[in-house]
């Protein structure tokens, strides 16, 4: 496969003036300087249409580094040929089980026609408890080796192609969050275990947080972040360095979120210079706790229709916490009611 042909195409179409302008828009937003009620980033000019990039499936990319490069950079190619305001970025795209696999989980591949990232089978409570003894998993686990190698290849491309190097950001892999990782390892019975054996759960969450820290440090040794104040994730620029996933929190009471989720998120936010929290589903019952997290500067949420958005807004934008990647129709509906969003809500239109 002639990867260089496609990289040369992308390099030729990246316009530094366009990308510098877009980056400035995002930096102002992240710094709290957006003058509009809603932040809608955009490219001021679309590049020429690309050559036809080959279609690369998610499953094929998992076992072929050239296809991983094409899969991720093909999306970048499409962005530079549009006026959309998404940042140009790529990642080592190996799914949610990246940090669960070294604990002994078995990979679960999705059917090719779904073109969806893999998950994993849990090891169950008994094997999970066994990780309380002995050393942490190795950061050189075979599944992690793929993640690291893809990062190295992205960096090699960035060194070879100056405009790709400057304007295409490589963001940290999907490391999830400590509670989400423990749910992947333990299984759905984890929610009973929070009640039945909280000391065991806390001990495992601490081990997972320590492993997360080691893996994030390894990643940053391969792919240093481009700026100490901001980073990129999901084609969004966020203040801080890390995007933590708290999808499991939708199943927990505020008291349990405060006890089992926040302390371990806080350790990671402290270590890596703050960042953003992602959560799916309903979260309005615990968004007031975001203000308890030092360094939690942004929230990425989905399904606003499942939430009491007035409460979410009081707990986020009214407190200076950004809502990044928010649903555009929902934002415009809120704005139409006269609700002030203070330049803290970001959408793509």
Which SSEs are present, and which pair or pack?
Blueprint: H1 3-13, H2 16-30, E1 38-39, H3 58-62, H4 65-80, E2 89-90, E3 106-108, E4 119-121, H5 125-130, H6 142-160, H7 162-167, E5 169-170, H8 178-186, H9 190-196, H10 198-222, E6 230-233, E7 236-239, E8 242-245, H11 254-260, H12 262-271, E9 275-279, E10 296-301, H13 309-315, E11 322-323, H14 328-336, E12 345-346
Distance between the termini: 35 Å
Reading off the top of the CATH hierarchy, the class is best stated as: Alpha Beta
List the total number of helices. Answer: 14
Question: What is the number of E strands?
Answer: 12
Low-confidence stretches: none
| Beta content | 5-15%
For the record, the count of structural domains works out to: 1
- Rough outline: globular
Sequence of secondary-structure elements: HHEHHEEEHHHEHHHEEEHHEEHEHE
Structural class: alpha/beta
Q: Can you give the mean pLDDT?
A: 97
Major sheet details: 4 strands, parallel
Give helix % range. 40-55%
CATH architecture level-2 label: Alpha-Beta Barrel
Computed over alpha carbons, the radius of gyration is 20 Å
List keywords for this structure.
globular, 14 helices, four-stranded parallel beta sheet, single chain, two-stranded parallel sheet, TIM Barrel, 349 residues, alpha/beta
């Amino acid at each position: 496969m002639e990867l260089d042909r496609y990289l040369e195409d992308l390099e030729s179409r990246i316009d530094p003036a366009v990308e510098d302008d877009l980056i400035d828009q995002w930096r102002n937003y992240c710094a709290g300087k957006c003058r509009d009620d809603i932040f809608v980033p955009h490219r001021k000019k679309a590049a020429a249409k690309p050559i036809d990039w080959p279609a690369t499936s998610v499953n094929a990319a998992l076992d072929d580094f050239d296809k991983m490069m094409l899969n991720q950079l093909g999306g970048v190619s499409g962005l530079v040929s549009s006026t959309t305001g998404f940042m140009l970025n790529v990642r080592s795209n190996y799914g949610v089980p990246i940090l669960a696999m070294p604990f002994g989980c078995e990979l679960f591949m999705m059917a090719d026609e779904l073109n969806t990232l893999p998950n994993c089978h849990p090891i169950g409570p008994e094997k999970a408890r066994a990780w309380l003894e002995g050393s942490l998993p190795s950061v050189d686990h075979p599944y992690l080796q793929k993640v690291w190698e893809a990062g190295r290849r992205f960096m090699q491309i960035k060194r070879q192609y100056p405009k790709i190097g400057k304007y295409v950001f490589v963001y940290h892999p999907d490391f999830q969050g400590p509670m989400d990782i423990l749910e992947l390892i333990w299984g759905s019975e984890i929610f009973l275990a929070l009640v039945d054996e909280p000391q065991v759960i806390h001990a495992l969450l601490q081990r997972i947080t320590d492993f997360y820290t080691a893996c994030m440090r390894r990643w940053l040794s391969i792919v240093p972040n481009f700026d100490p104040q901001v980073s990129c994730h999901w084609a969004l620029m966020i203040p801080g360095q890390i995007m933590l996933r708290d999808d499991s929190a939708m199943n927990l009471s505020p008291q349990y979120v405060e006890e089992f989720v926040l302390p371990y998120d806080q350790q990671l936010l402290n270590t890596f210079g703050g960042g953003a929290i992602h959560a799916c589903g309903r979260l309005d019952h615990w968004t007031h706790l975001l203000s308890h997290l030092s360094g939690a500067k942004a929230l990425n949420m989905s399904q606003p229709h499942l939430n009491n958005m007035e409460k979410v807004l009081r707990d986020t934008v009214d407190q200076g916490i950004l809502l990044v990647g928010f649903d555009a129709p929902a934002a415009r509906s809120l704005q139409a009611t006269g609700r002030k969003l203070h330049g803290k809500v970001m959408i793509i239109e």
